[in-house]
């Protein structure tokens, strides 16, 4: 039938849902990219992807894992690791406890073992709500221990990066995490381990410059900013205008740094398929 | 009986008259402006004549042209509909002078009821309660003060020549009276060149209740129950229903008797409406009489089974009413929603346009009075009313539900309408309970529009499950 009746039905069903309280909130949030407002319900239905322009807004680590893993297969690793304040950085301890209260996270990474479409793997997911997902000792140690766990159990390793880089409040200790994670992942790969690295918006600094760029397979979410220094810093330094889409996932794909761009609703399918394809004897038990 | 009736109107009311005439085997002559060549009334009448250019003043208000049209087509009566010439006493007189029957009351009655002061005096003389206030123009501010004390604050100061809210002030207490009086008077002089002022008691949170009456030339006057027209925006009615939830049988009897008394005192003939305000305490006051058929007359037709336009035609032909007061039975409940080509989001600005698609509701208990058809161009020159959706059902709640589904079926594409707003009102708890007064829309409009906006945006994304 014609579109007028379709529009009419959509409207009526939406109204009914609003009346029945299925849409409890008429609160609307604007998209940071296109500026269009969408309701909380629409944002959650689309997994925090803007229904208008497809902007992939950052999401929490547990939420991402719940979207990807087979139900009931989630098992957290190293959940007791806690950040220290090795430098006695002013205000850092208060900031950590405040963020723990606010987000329920102990630090910016969650490590877990679970299954994606029956394929068992080890995961590390960074959470940008916690100090911009910056890598301090806990994040570095979680990545390292997850890689060692994967090595021990002959499982593939999957990381989701979302980070502002090394954590300045931990100074040299966070910079050391770059070398540590790079070393442990290189050893893991040399012994035949599969490492899938996934970039989400934004991944910059020390995380890009260490484990995140070492994947055997490199994936990213659409529109993710991936780089070391941010575009504004580069522009100011070199005094030149940067090309359109510079440091965006699509640009990096065109220039051979990425293997594939995966929209949020496709992660489960793509990861499941990749892990199944790379299954080999003695691994993925 | 009449042979050929000229319909000095357009739109759905012209169609309504054409239909009643056809059923009585009376020929119809439609008049139309150049903008209305393709309008349905010009197509469905036995004969149609162009009476002038698009501007109403040059066509539908052009008495000479309309009377000439009636003469050359050999009409024996003129139906004025509502609006346009329907309450113009001179036109009624000129029809009679031209040897035509005017379907409505005599010119003198229209004239008398058209003057607020005269209508008020007449109602008082018939023992009908009027809003307490000054009986004549106020002579001084002191007199205004004394009167305000007597009827009680808040009061309303009104210029006798006033209209559209100009020369009008609400006064809540004695200390504001003097300033308000001067301001209103100055405004009245500036706008109307007449500083004559009245004062009356302001009824807070009133309901707008009107009684349909019909009278024949034999002296029978009958009332057909009330209509509650409290859902209005700036005096523009949006939803009407009958019977009103605010009336007890005793109050209905009392008000009906008062309405008949007022009509009788006026020497009324034909269909008319007596308007009251009803205070929350059950006290009612006469405000005015409409000496014509009204937009919302089908509400009464649905609950009484009386064809009002048919009775109008019978009365004009000199026949007695086909029923007496004791034959009138109000049964069930009827609701009308007026659908206007207007944009509620832009302060209800009229939005004429081409009707790209049209689907009208149907099924049991549903009536739609409209002059729309697919492809019809709604003209910017006239009223924005495009359809009246009416329902009737045995109980009020069933009627509300029927109206909801009717508005859900209604599809008018090509220009914005207020139908979504009406649909939301049908779900408003206050409306569903019948607990509303004339302040309902002012109070709830923003919230309803916000709801409509949210709903629109959500469904525009195609995200409804």
Structure commentary:
The complex is a heterodimer of chains A (285) and B (465). With 285 residues, chain A is α/β, with parallel strands linked by helices. Chain A is built from ten helices and nine strands. Chain A folds into two domains: 1-55, no CATH class; 56-277, 2-enoyl-CoA Hydratase, Chain A, domain 1, CATH 3.90.226. In chain A, α6 links the parallel β6 and β7. In chain A, α5 runs parallel beside α6. Chain B has 465 residues and is of the alpha+beta class. Chain B folds into three domains: 4-103, Rossmann fold (3-Layer(aba) Sandwich), CATH 3.40.50; 132-201, ATP-grasp fold, A domain (Dna Ligase, domain 1), CATH 3.30.1490; 207-460, ATP-grasp fold, B domain (D-amino Acid Aminotransferase, Chain A, domain 1), CATH 3.30.470. Chain B contains 15 helices and 20 strands. Chain B is globular and about 60 Å long. The chains are: A alpha/beta (285), B alpha+beta (465). The A-B interface holds A 2, 4-5, 7-15, 17-19, 23, 26, 28, 37-39, 41-42, 45-46, 51-52 and B 357, 359, 408, 411, 413, 420, 423, 427, 450-451, 454-459, 461-465.
- Structural class of chain B, by secondary structure, is alpha+beta
CATH fold title of the largest domain in chain B: D-amino Acid Aminotransferase, Chain A, domain 1
Assign an overall shape of chain B.
Answer: globular
Mean pLDDT across the residues of chain A is 90
Largest sheet of chain B: 8 strands, antiparallel
The coarse silhouette of chain A is globular
């Amino acid at each position: 039938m014609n579109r007028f009746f379709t529009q009419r039905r959509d409207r009526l069903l939406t109204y009914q849902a609003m009346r029945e309280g299925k849409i409890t909130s008429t609160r609307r949030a604007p998209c940071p990219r296109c500026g269009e407002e969408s309701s909380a319900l629409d944002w959650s239905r689309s997994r925090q992807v803007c229904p208008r322009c497809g902007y992939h807004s950052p999401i929490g680590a547990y939420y991402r894992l719940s979207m990807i893993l087979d139900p009931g297969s989630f098992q957290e690793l190293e959940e007791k690791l806690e950040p220290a304040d090795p430098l006695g950085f002013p205000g850092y301890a208060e900031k950590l406890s405040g963020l723990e209260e606010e987000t329920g996270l102990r630090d910016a990474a969650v490590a877990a073992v679970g299954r994606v479409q029956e394929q068992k793997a080890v995961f590390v997911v960074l959470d940008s709500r916690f100090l911009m997902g910056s890598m301090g000792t806990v994040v570095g140690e979680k990545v390292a221990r997850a890689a060692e766990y994967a090595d021990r159990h002959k499982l593939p390793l999957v990381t989701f990066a979302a980070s502002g880089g090394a954590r300045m409040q931990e100074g040299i200790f966070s910079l050391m995490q770059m070398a540590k994670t790079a070393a442990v992942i290189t050893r893991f790969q040399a012994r035949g381990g599969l490492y899938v690295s996934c970039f989400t918006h934004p991944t910059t600094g020390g995380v890009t410059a260490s484990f995140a760029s070492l994947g055997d397979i490199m994936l990213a979410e659409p529109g993710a900013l991936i780089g070391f220094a941010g575009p504004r810093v580069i522009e100011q330094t070199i005094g030149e205008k940067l090309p359109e889409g510079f440091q965006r996932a699509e640009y990096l794909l065109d220039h051979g740094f990425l293997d594939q761009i995966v929209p949020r609703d496709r992660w489960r399918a793509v990861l499941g398929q990749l892990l199944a394809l790379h299954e080999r004897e003695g691994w993925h038990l | 009986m009449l042979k050929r009736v000229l319909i000095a109107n357009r739109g759905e009311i012209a169609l309504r008259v054409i239909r009643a005439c056809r059923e009585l085997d009376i020929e119809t002559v439609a008049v139309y402006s150049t903008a209305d060549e393709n309008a349905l009334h010009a197509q469905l009448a036995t004969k149609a004549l162009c009476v002038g250019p698009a501007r109403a003043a040059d066509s539908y208000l052009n008495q000479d042209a309309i009377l000439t049209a009636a003469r050359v087509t050999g009409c024996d009566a003129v139906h004025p509909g509502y609006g346009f010439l329907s309450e113009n006493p001179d036109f009624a007189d000129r029809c009679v002078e031209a040897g035509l029957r005017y379907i409505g009351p005599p010119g003198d009655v229209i004239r008398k009821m058209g003057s607020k002061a005269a209508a008020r005096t007449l109602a008082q003389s018939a023992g009908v309660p009027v809003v307490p206030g000054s009986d004549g123009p106020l002579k001084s501010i002191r007199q205004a003060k004394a009167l305000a004390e007597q009827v009680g604050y808040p009061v309303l100061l009104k210029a006798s020549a006033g209209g559209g809210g100009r020369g009008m002030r609400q006064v809540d207490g004695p200390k504001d009276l003097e300033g308000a009086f001067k301001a209103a008077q100055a405004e009245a002089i500036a706008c109307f060149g007449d500083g004559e002022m009245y004062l009356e008691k302001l009824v807070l949170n009133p309901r707008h209740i009107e009684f349909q009456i019909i009278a024949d030339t034999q002296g029978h006057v009958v009332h057909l129950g009330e209509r509650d027209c409290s859902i209005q925006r700036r005096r523009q009615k949006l939803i009407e229903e009958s019977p009103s939830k605010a009336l007890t049988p005793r109050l209905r009897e009392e008000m009906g008797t008062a309405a008949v008394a007022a009509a009788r005192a006026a020497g009324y003939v034909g269909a008319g409406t007596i308007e009251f305000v009803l205070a929350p305490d059950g006290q009612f006051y006469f405000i005015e009489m409409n000496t014509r058929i009204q937009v919302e007359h089908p509400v009464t037709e649905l609950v009484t089974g009386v064809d009002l336009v048919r009775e109008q035609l019978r009365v004009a032909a000199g026949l007695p009413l086909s029923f007496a007061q004791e034959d009138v039975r109000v049964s069930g409940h009827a609701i009308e929603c007026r659908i206007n080509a207007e944009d509620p989001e832009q302060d209800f600005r009229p939005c004429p346009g081409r009707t790209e698609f049209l689907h009208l509701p149907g099924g049991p208990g549903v009536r739609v009075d409209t002059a729309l058809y697919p492809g019809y161009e709604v003209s910017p020159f006239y009223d924005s009313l495009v359809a009246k959706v009416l329902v009737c059902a045995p109980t009020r709640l069933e009627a509300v539900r029927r109206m909801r589904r009717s508005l859900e079926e209604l599809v008018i594409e090509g220009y914005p309408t207020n139908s979504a707003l009406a649909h939301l009102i049908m779900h408003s708890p206050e409306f569903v309970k019948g607990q509303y007064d004339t302040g309902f829309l002012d109070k709830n409009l923003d919230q309803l529009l916000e709801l409509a906006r949210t709903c629109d945006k959500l469904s525009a994304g195609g995200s409804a499950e």
